[in-house]
Amino acid sequence: MSRATLLVLADGRFPAGGHAHSGGVEAAVRAGRINDAADLAAFCRGRLHTVGLTSAALAACAALGHDLVELDAAADARTPSPALRAAARRLGRQMMRAARATWPHPLLDALAARFPRGTHQPVVLGSAARAAGLGAEDAAYCVAYETISGPATAAVRLLSLDPFQATAVLARLAAETDAVAARAAAAAGDGVDALPAASAPLLEITAEDHAAWPVRLFAS
Fold this sequence. Notes:
- Helix 6 packs antiparallel against helix 7 (121-131) and helix 7 packs across helix 8 (136-159).
- By secondary structure, this protein is mainly α.
- It is 69% helix and 0% strand.
- The radius of gyration is 16 Å and the shape is globular.
- It is built from 11 helices and no strands.
């Protein structure tokens, strides 16, 4: 495993399309649930321990080489919102383009052929990690961190939040991010049927509302 490779995959500038998605922050800001750094911290913590854990486990399972068709179905089952399923597949397509250009591998070619319209982003990320020579915990870390870093970046744009404060939120969640990544990787070792299914119903509900907005800054 190369630490530099892990940094490339986890880099927010990796062209995987995440900058266009707020992770539910845009809807939360409009609803008045996020107004400052303290609100952002609470939002990110909740997201990390629910959809973050679930997504990180899916990625870790893919990195271990488990059946990707089963993982796609497992991701669908854990994403009740049609809007979020569509967003996850759009992100998966973009991640696939970036991963195949960066780490060409027959595994990624086969996954792209099996799901021409895209599979869920965590499944692609885990496959990309495997293609790049990374492990299950590496993949889990990437997803867990992305679960909170994306919303933090979006909050800076939506609220004109001080970026130093947003970064401080991520730093204060570091220990919890470590714990979520470790838990996700451990669950992945037991196979697809053992994956966590933690959810955040409010994120699902507001995602459907957000998808119907005529004007929005973020895709989701």
